[in-house]
Amino acid sequence: MIIKGKEYKLRILHNVVAWNKTAEIIEKYLNKGNEVAVEGKLTTRSYDDKEGNKRYITEVVCNEILMLGNK
Question: Among 3.10.450.50, 3.40.50.300, 3.40.190.80, 2.40.50.140, what is the CATH number of 13-69?
Answer without folding.
Answer: 2.40.50.140
